[in-house]
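Record type: monomer structure entry
Structure origin: computed from sequence
Chain ID: A
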Amino acid sequence: MRIEFIEIANFRKLRSTRVGFSKEKTVFVGANNSGKTSAMVALRYFLVERERSSFSLNDFTLSHWPKINSMGDHWEKAKRADEPLPAPSWDDVLPSLDVWLNVEDSELHYVQKILPSLDWEGGLLGVRLRFEPKDALDLQKEYLVARADAEFMLVAGTEMAEKNKAEGGAGEVFTVSLWPQNLTEFLQRRLRSFFSVKAYVLDPDKCKNPEYGLAQSQVLPEGSEPVQVDPFKGLIRIDEISAQRGFGQANNAKNEESDSDVAAASGTRKLSEQLRRYYHSHLDPYVNSDSEDLLALKAIEDAQKAFDGRLKEGFAVALKEMEKLGYPGVTDPRLNISTRLRPVDGLNHDAAVQYVIRVMDGESALDLHLPEDSNGLGYQNLISMVFRLMSFRDAWMRVGKAQAKITTSSEAFVPPLHLVLIEEPEAHLHTQVQQVFIRQAYKILRAHDELKDGSRLATQMVVSTHSSHIAHECDFGSLRYFRRMPANGGDIPTSCVINLTDVFGKDTDTQRFVTRYLKVTHCDLFFADGAVLIEGPAERILVPHFVRYQEEFSDLSECYITWLEIGGSHAHRMKELIESLGLTTLIITDLDAVDSDGKTTTPKRESKQKSRNETLKSWCPATEILDELIDKPESEKSKTYQDEQFSVRAAYQYPITVMFKGVSSEALANTLEDALVFQNIDLFASLKGKGLLAKIRTALEESTTISEVGEKLFSSLKGGGKAELALDLLEIEDPKALRPPAYIREGLLWLASQLRQHHNELGLAASGIPVKGEYKEVA
């Protein structure tokens, strides 16, 4: 048994979202404010019973608030008109979580209380958990009473103000805002009094696939009755490691002995407290003692007797002195001091957990001890998380003394599914440690003899992260990309989730290439606002340099952009992934002109030349004819995905007009390097240096026409040294003196304008990018 997928509706930014679960671990990735945390919170609020009291009105999708207020307005209008009150209509706005389990027919005994019918023979089983009014009519009545009281008070205040005015008092118009102004304001105070989570069994035959990234959650039949018991009790055990771990701080957990308490476990900050909790659950010799505990118990008893004797001796003088005060009298109980030694007391101090550092003193070793809060936060975080995972597993499997604490038959039943939620495990962890943790975490959760075969009991781990290192360490099929969707009309931005398992379909070659490329390249594609695919190392060096130092691109430096160095012959392989992520992308690439025989050549008009650049040919602008490429208007160099609401644009060389030795001519570059020269002729003519710099200076000196310069540069660039040239250009004293080629400039300004528009649509203008430069064609 395992969770196949969940569907979250009307919960914060997740208005209608399906999230598929991998068999073992599922990793949530996505840019900031994309809904990853909302999904984790939804799982916690709906599935953990004690967390259900944490719901607030802010958990309702904001776009539904006007609809909720409108419903309240209709109630008030009907009451004023003395008409029958409209029936409350909450179904379309209620937060819900649909959990779809994949259950074998041999596991029927686990799921009897959530079967849709007696004909079910295995497969999908669905349960909807919905946060809804306990009694919708009672809520309606209480709201109208509260509104009537507010209006009565407002009328009374107005009358008093009028009376005061008539008696010569202040003459201002009486205005005051009394609670509640509307239904949402009423619910902000009274939500938990009127709402609770109820469960409904869903029909597997009515389960539909998402459309355009939106889940098609089934509508409950009229008159559906909720399940009277917790549908997942005894079926799913849930444990959580939250993002707010606060290492090095004191902890105020109420129940130190509760290993199974999710809230306490997620809030534990110090390792020593976790050790005490683990001890109580699994090691305490006073609980269900066995032969291995007898020696320990005997030692404790002897120590207690010896200590009692010493205490009696030590307090004898003080107790005798107290008798002089008349206490105790003949009938008064006498005072006795005795010890109660428990092994766990040895862990109840700040130095219970220490780190040992071994140093050499001459030829002998000396162990030095430091308290746990003296170690680095990264190590504390790692050790703490690993220990919690072990504790979660052992509590689930009733390891050690945990079995003895079972008091009911239902508690003796080991749930067949263990769901572990981990938020942002990368906090304070070094890169390599992040990767080690995500590789080993699931193995730790399965490190038990009864779990190794994996046939009967299942573990599913869900991780949310902002770390590209963790994402790269996971299989592509385990990633779930949370994508921010722009608002439509007067609506608000929401999110959808992309299952990266199916991005490439049956094209295994492309999937293998992209997967391997992303694993060997440090990029943060899954967390960026936009992407720039660049041709080679020279572009990788110089384009970010332009963004940093050219004033018109300054706003881009405030954006979260990922730079991917991937040649024009391979950039098209990213097409399916970019389209699935809906990521605004700029492709900076080369014309790569070839003649009719397919040989590389300098680009020329009306020469029947083509481009061998596969990205230009098959993706954007989807043509290989050189004359068509170089004459494309700027608007046709981009591809807009209307349904997905994002764009991709190719930036490549095109003819520009330059002044060379007093003559104005058209120059057509083939690569970044000759485009740089044509854009900065005077600068390159004055630059000193060796290698390509020297060859460029010589070409400019010896040539009489710009066409001749192009031919010489074509020959010189065949010898390599492009990256070295880029590094040499970084040494220019004034970095602003090097102007970007026109095609790169236009591409970067296009990207800036797209990101500004996208941020505005997402409602992030306040923290977004106020782009100063404008995108426009450059002659």
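Annotation 1: The mean pLDDT is 84.
Annotation 2: The chain has 22 helices and 22 strands.
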